[in-house]
Specification:
The chain is of the alpha+beta class. The protein contains 10 helices and 4 strands; from the N terminus they run E-E-E-H-E-H-H-H-H-H-H-H-H-H. The protein has a 4-stranded antiparallel beta sheet with strand order 3-2-1-4.
Length: 213
């Protein structure tokens, strides 16, 4: 059944949003951009299908606003945004359209995100390549992008150098322990950080050559 737009009013709490009244009753609220895109005006008659179309545009607008706010806090992968928008209750269609638009605008770029994430991790909390790879996989990054990100994060160094640097710092914390216990703790620490077993073994074999920093 068609309904007539009897009023379009600016909302008091947010001047960017408008309340749409159909046949004298509040029907729904929309963002000003959606209002302009829809081209509706007072006196227009809307079918149920037209109302649903407008509501879908409004949902996409809300999803985009939510996504941009999330990105303003920190960079995120496409999968991370998808998961956050789902938790916020947005439909699959609205999320897909939002992510496509953000990718088109290059606001979401998994390859660039992966490099930034890996480099930040190595600067703040150095770890092995396995750990970096696992974290990026959990964020939905594709294998090729992961390999590229790890290569860039490790530019100018390698896993052995990073592991030895961490070991040098850790050894002084184990100064009061007998050697075997200290080695065990160091080994566990490096393995948790995602270093390969052969790298950890090499560090332990050179225990006496570690320097206290």
């Amino acid at each position: 059944m068609d309904r007539t737009i009897t009023s379009i009013e600016v909302q008091k709490k947010d001047s960017n949003r408008f309340s749409i009244f159909l046949d004298g009753e509040f029907a729904f609220g929309i963002h000003k951009d959606v209002l302009l895109e829809s081209g509706i005006a007072r006196g227009d008659r809307l079918t149920e299908s037209q109302v649903e179309t407008i509501k879908k545009r409004e949902e996409v607008k809300k999803a985009k606003i939510k996504a941009v706010r999330l990105l303003s806090v920190r960079a995120r992968s496409k999968q991370e945004l998808d998961e956050r928008l789902k938790r916020s209750g947005f439909s699959t269609g609205a999320i897909d359209e939002t992510l496509r638009e953000l990718e088109r605008l290059d606001l979401v770029n998994d390859a660039e995100f992966a490099v930034l994430f890996a480099r930040t991790k190595m600067a703040q909390k150095p770890q092995g390549k396995m750990a970096l790879s696992l974290e990026l996989k959990k964020k939905g990054i594709e294998e090729t992008a992961i390999e590229n990100a790890i290569a860039k994060a490790y530019e100018g160094t390698n896993e052995s150098e990073v592991a030895f640097s961490l070991a040098n710092r850790k050894k002084q914390q184990f100064g009061n322990l007998e050697e075997q216990k200290a080695k065990k703790r160091l080994s566990d620490y490096l393995l948790r950080r995602g270093f390969r077993f052969d790298v950890v073994r090499d560090v332990l074999e050179n225990w006496n050559h570690l320097e206290l920093e």
